Amino acid sequence: MLILSRKVGESIVIDGRIVVKITRLEGEVVKLGIQAPADVPVHRQEVYEEIQRNNQEALTRGQRRVPKLAPRAAGAGPAGERPAAGAPPGPPGTSVVNNPQ
Does pTM surpass 0.85? Predict the structure, then answer.
């Protein structure tokens, strides 16, 4: 852990993108100003820990397995149907089987 001394009005810069500024001292309470990009979440530690607990609980609570789809028959179309006799060939790279009647 890095420990720094700063006075009111002084700042530290993290990763060139986050600025933490000491804005005020009120007794034993330090008021901080934090400037960070919108994609960087900033939380008090107790809030962050609660978010982590909730996320972990959501992952472990009531997990339901996603059902597997049945495999399609060879040559079956999207709805599981075979192309009609005399239908035009499919997209490039597909094979057409002649079905003599």
Answer: no
DSSP 79: T
Q: Say how far apart CA 13 and CA 69 lie, in whole Å.
A: 52
Q: pLDDT, tens digit, for every residue of 3-61?
A: 999 999 999 999 999 999 999 999 999 999 999 999 999 999 999 999 999 998 888 87
Residue type, 39: D
CB contact at 8 A, 68 and 53: no
Q: Locate tokens 């149907």: which residue?
A: 81
Task: Please report where in the chains the tokens 């978010």 appear, as a residue.
Answer: 51
30 is a domain residue: yes
Assigned domain for 68 exists:
no
Range of the domain at 40: 11-54
Total number of domains constituting the chain: 1
